[in-house]
Design goal:
The structure holds 2 protein chains of 2 kinds.
Chain A: E1 33-44, E2 47-58, E3 62-66, H1 73-79, E4 90-98, E5 101-102, H2 110-116, E6 117-120, H3 131-141, H4 147-160, H5 164-167, H6 180-192, E7 198-202, H7 210-223, E8 228-232, H8 236-242, E9 245-250, E10 253-259, H9 260-265, H10 270-276
Chain B: H1 2-44, H2 50-54, H3 67-98, H4 103-115, H5 120-134, H6 141-165, H7 169-177, H8 182-209, H9 214-218, H10 252-260, H11 265-299
Classes of the chains: A alpha/beta, B mainly alpha.
Chain lengths: 281, 302
């Protein structure tokens, strides 16, 4: 497929062969998929944002969605916890199964689904409350009021999000006094507190400086031991660094899906190669 | 060269001319208001005394006071606030957070905005028909409070909607993504973060209601009340009494109207003094609104 020439000037410099020092390059694809997306179609009004996308996301690994802006990767991500339901004009057809259970069936409890599938947003969005209250909120709305239990979960979640040491003496200070990177890690801690199975991350580092980005990437490496992570990113080096599998989207279609090292070194499709080598996008 | 300089000079003098015109325009408003206030203060200040606040109206100007008027105003405002705030806030939350966005809600929105502009005497006519004749609530504090509540309801709804619209969508998404229901999101986030704006709107609305005269005269407020409503707290069980709700009443602007319409100058002085008190009440409410807005804005950072 030919590239639109007007996109030629948008070249970015990415190493021709990304350096992936992955000893476990042979990521097992035999692992049971936790999320199965089949023929998913999404329309916003009359705009078709996703065109019959099918993809299987393996459990306790990190899967990256890459592609140019408007390619549908965020739309797909927000279908996985039904955040798209909040948009009035959206219409969704197809099937998304988590642990084999259809999440778009009438019997699905969206509240329970969103508790099991946590989400981190592009722009950190802590509540204008204390650090403690931010992390405890997910438990409070689920009806946990035991003080000791809350204390315990807040500490555990902040430790998991690698924020505990920085905030342990100021748990009751306002979350908005933290730096951007800290606020984003607080949002991760808040999502982890309800023990989700899946963590959706929508460009979690795009507004962060390189040091904060490195911290969050390190965190993703640790978190994928216990959680399934799906991350949307514009940064291809980031996809290469943190993910086990990568899905490349273009104009609402899933172009290629596979083991990250393979996508970045030997993509099967020409479009994928053009995008990751920076020939467009 | 010469012409360029001339042109600049001409444009500069035009600039200065507009500055003067603008200043004059502003002074017209300001000076009128000040003159009004000064006139009121010069006339009325002499009548402001303890006796003035604790006396009923009287045939003798020097013995007359505003006791029944300020008590009436306070009680009517209480009913108005207790009715308009829950109704208005709930309606605003529903329209903004729950109602689907379609032509019907768009129509409702336009009509609410229009309701805010309906002349207050029309509300008075409606209240006379509905509350006084239909529901037989009498020419009472309850009727007056409900009438003024209807009058300010659109203002409260609009203020509520505007302040909850100022809560970023990302905060709602954060709550939903944790598994919060719509009501939990509203109760824990949307309402607490917009309280400042809502309270400000409510107080502005009440300070409009406090000066309303026409609808209350329409429903038959008395102008001469020489007794107080039954106190809301009683010494005998159950300690609370709601008899004051059906009591006849007068309010500050009606008391003023009564005094102004008399021929004797002494009564006009009383009216001026009551006007000063009413203005002080309104200014205090607006001041409170500014303070609340400042406090809440400072506490919440996104």
């Amino acid at each position: 497929m030919e590239l639109p020439t007007e996109l030629e000037h948008l070249k970015i410099t990415v190493p021709q062969t990304p350096d992936i020092n992955a000893p476990d390059q042979a990521v097992s694809t035999t692992r049971q998929p936790i999320i199965q997306v089949t023929d998913l179609d999404v329309h916003y009004g009359s705009t078709r944002a996703l065109k019959s996308v099918s993809v299987e996301i393996p459990e306790r690994q990190a899967t990256a969605f890459i592609g140019p802006s408007g390619c549908g990767k965020t739309t797909l991500l927000r279908c996985l916890n039904r955040m798209n339901d909040l948009i009035d004009t959206v219409s969704i057809t197809g099937s998304v199964k988590i642990h084999g259970r259809e999440i778009y069936s009438a019997s699905t409890d969206v509240i329970d689904l969103r508790r099991r599938v946590g989400m981190i947003f592009q722009k950190w969005n802590p509540f204008p409350k204390s650090i403690y209250e931010n992390v405890a909120y997910g438990l409070r709305i689920a009806g946990v009021h035991n003080r000791y239990r809350l204390d315990e979960v807040v500490e555990k979640s902040l430790k998991r999000a690698a924020l505990w040491d920085e905030v342990k003496d100021n748990l009751h200070k306002s979350a908005s006094d933290l730096s951007g990177g800290q606020q984003q890690r607080l949002c991760i801690a808040r999502a982890l507190a309800v023990e989700p199975e899946v963590l959706l991350m929508d460009e979690p580092c795009s507004a962060l400086d390189p040091i904060s980005t490195a911290k969050i990437e390190e965190l993703i490496h640790e978190l994928k031991e216990s959680f399934t992570i799906v991350i949307v990113t514009h940064n291809m080096q980031q996809a290469a660094r943190v993910s086990d599998h990568t899905a490349f989207f273009y104009l609402g279609e899933l172009v290629e899906f596979g083991v990250t090292s393979k996508i970045f070194t030997a993509p099967e499709r020409r479009q994928t190669e053009d995008y990751i080598t920076g020939r467009f996008g | 060269m010469k012409t360029a300089e001339k042109s600049i000079a001409r444009r500069k003098s035009l600039d200065a001319l507009f500055a003067i015109i603008g200043l004059l325009a502003m002074l017209v408003g300001l000076v009128t208001l000040l003159a009004l206030l000064m006139d009121l203060a010069l006339d009325g200040a002499g009548r402001l005394s303890w006796q003035f606040f604790t006396s009923y109206p009287s045939r003798f100007a020097s013995q007359a006071g505003i006791l029944s008027a300020w008590v009436g105003t306070t009680l009517v405002m209480l009913v108005t606030a207790l009715t308009a705030v829950p109704l208005g806030v709930a309606a605003g939350v529903y329209l903004e957070e729950y109602a689907p966005k379609n032509w019907l809600t768009a129509l409702i929105e336009i009509n609410i905005a229009n309701l805010a502009g309906v002349p207050s005497i029309v509300y008075g006519l409606m209240a006379l028909g509905l509350f006084v004749y239909q529901f037989r609530l009498g020419q009472s504090i309850l009727t007056a409070g409900l009438t003024l509540a209807l009058l300010i309801l659109p203002i409260v709804i609009v203020a509520t909607r505007e302040s909850i619209r100022a809560v970023p969508g990302s905060i709602r998404e954060a709550a939903y993504a944790l598994g919060a229901t719509k009501w939990q999101t509203v109760k824990d986030h949307v309402l607490p973060y917009s309280t400042g704006g809502i309270l400000t709107g409510v107080i502005i609305a009440l300070s409009r209601a406090i000066g309303e005269t026409a609808p209350l005269i329409t429903i038959g407020a008395l102008t001469f009340i020489a007794f107080l409503p039954n106190p809301p707290i009683t010494s005998a069980f159950p300690f609370l009494s709601f008899e004051w709700l059906i009591s006849p009443f007068t309010v500050m602007p009606i008391q003023m109207f009564n005094w102004v319409s008399r021929p004797q100058r002494e009564f006009h002085l009383n009216a001026a003094a009551a006007g000063l008190v009413l203005m002080a009440m309104t200014l205090a409410m607006n001041g409170l609104a500014i303070y609340i807005r400042y406090r809440f804005r400072k506490r919440i950072k996104w």
